[in-house]
Amino acid sequence: MFFYSKIASDLLTHKSRTALAISSIAIGLFVIGTLLGMMDLQLGGMDNAHRQSQPSHISLILRQDADMAIAETLKNIEGVANIDLLTQFTAQYKTPQSSKWQTGTVIFRPDYQNQRYDLMGLVSGDFPKNQHIAAERLSAQYAKLNIGDSIEFATAKGSEILSLSGIIRHPFVKPPAFGGQLHFFIAPELAPKFGIPAHSFRQVLVQIQQPYSADKARDIAGKLRAELAKSGIAVNATLLQNPEEHWGRAIFSGIHLVLTVMAWASLALSSVLISNTVAALITQQTDQIGIMKSVGASRWTIASIYLSEVLILSLVALVIAVPLSWAGAFFSSCWLLGLFNIELADFAYSPRALVFMIVGGLTAPLLAAIWPIWKGAVMSVRQALASYGLGADFASGGFDRWLERRATSLLPTIYAVALGNLLRRKARLFWTQSVLIIAGVLFIIIMSLIASVKLTLDNELARSRYAVRLGFSQDQAADTIIPIVQGIAPTTAVEFWNRLPAELSQHGQLIKQSGSLGVQMIALPVETKMYQPLIVAGRWFDQSDDGQQHLVLNAATAELNGIEVGDSLQVKVFQQISMKHLNDQGLTVRPEPVEGRTVKPLMVRQAHHERLNLTAPIPKLETQQTTTDWQVIGFYRWFAGSGYAVEPVYAPLSSISTDNRHSFALLAANINNLDEEKTYTDSLKIAFAEQQIKLDIYTTLAKLEQRQFAQNQFRPLTSMLLGLASMIAAVGAIGLSGTLAIGVLQRTREIGVLRAIGASSSAIFKLFMLEGLFHGLLAWLVSIPLAYLLAEPLAKQLGITMLGIRLDFVFAWTAEGIWLVVVLILAVLAAYLPARKATRIIVRVGLGY
Description:
Distance between the termini: 26 Å
Number of helices: 23
Radius of gyration: 35 Å
């Protein structure tokens, strides 16, 4: 009976101490459950959604419209299980909420009811039919579109109003909140109204025969590109997808190691608070321990009492933390997965996280409490009864005495006493400071990471001296483009580049690229004024490279394949040139037979051209494959934000045959902000739409908008880390409050003596508040050099692990000032209640403690 009465008395008599212990354990468990639960829900949700969408193994994004007859040829290629088709293009639209023309993406599939791969699921309403269209789920949320709204589109035959009848989820779409265009879906019979040939496609989705392997998919993708090239169809990009793992998994996998370390660190730090709390309890009850031992209680009985108290505290903390962590993991996962257009429909939790919470929540506090409990349990009766709790732990070392003398001579008395009290319990000081220092170092590192991302973006922006890059669906003649762009202010210069789908080999083996969308050759003037990447080895182009077969390669790809500067690569280039140009060179072109009939290249597009009654003739084009040796003269650092991009390989424009037709027009313009850039970009898009020149949605970009988009991509990750730093700071504040509360308990008799010799309540309040502030200042001072030493290597590693880029590092000195303010506020909040409690101790109670 005594056993249980003693436990109940200890837990209920000092309710504030009990609540402090429970909250410290619960916060650590909440962090563990939330972070581990987020990892499992996110990765599981991503992979499940990916598998349910029947992902294509290969996705070929074509440069132009291809006739449906070609699809049958692709389907019969050895190793192909089946294919699916779709078309994406840009269009101008107006929503009920905006009267301005905007640029969006329009998609159609041959049959929405019989999709094979990359399934687009119906969220509500109906699939597109006749004059009824659908909006992508994220687009509808962003633009506040509802079923029944009327959307006005600019078509090839004039403006047309279409009714919104459905909401569709697209498994891979850039979120509008991060700079992506709104996506709409139309019925295939509406395609001719937008100038798209009937019975055509622009994207091929392929699944290969089992078993799947990346090498096998890469080999079959090469066969598909070669087959398309025979019919005059060039491929802009090739995407390879693992059918079992979502394409965005790498983004989360990179940060999960960091989150796991932080989760267990939080539990360890909260266990420190338990150790401090139990140590204070033992110190307070040394006389009770002496009495219990004097009446026959064994050390095991005493240890069992206090261990049982810790176990009860841990169980209560578990009951509080488990449901909160489930909610935190689920709702944070819903938010993050929503960025990838994945919806967690039903509430879910992670069994693994629950097991770790139970095991960690019960064992860590018990392990932390064993030493102070055993230290008290083995205390002799004489030692326990002889403890008076009056200054016995003060100024025991040479440093303490030196500090006391210096502080007394330099500071007012109350400041000197507060500073001396800081060092009375060095072990407790160490553990309390460790929590605050870790929070401060983490905060400064994260702020430096954010600053480094901004610096990297700014440096990349400085290397890009163009304002807008226009990508054309079909290569355009420079003479056609120059009058259009020069007529739109504030254009100051224009430069033309070409892109050519390419395959790079070394010693007969295709090289692996760091970009998952394949590789393309970017041919640009050797004396380009618009852009120069960051060269990390070798050199960039100069006048000596004019007409030479030289390459500048991505450094990550070079490292992946063991390529050195000066090596030769075999490059197969798929190049579209006009038949007139081939004839001028004395070459002839034979149309390739498709299913027993002859198909003339671009036959469908020419018929479409005649139907639109355009005045400028469209030249006949043919795709020519050439394989030659090229020399690598330099490596550049690729700033892509992730591997999910088409990887450029740079070459001199003069080393390829262009027929004066180009894939890109890079425009320099006097633009100062995003609003000016958007106005300029919209004017360009409208001007080209009026001339029936289609811009490629993937490669047309505005520089400032791209910077904003890249920064938005990193924001969820950095926000998550700042949130975790805040949690650890909260643990530190609770720990500091606990330390000061313990100090009040241990110095109750001292407070009584101070009261007896005339100390006022305000002086005692100030004494404990100053002690809390000194804790904060000391943690801040120690965190500065630690953060300075650790910030650069950790921020760079986080950039590689989480963001897939090598950051240009800058130390965030402003974070030092911000953290000083934060830690002082935390110190004031943590010290207030203990200081206030100290002022309520009267002389009689203090001296009789």
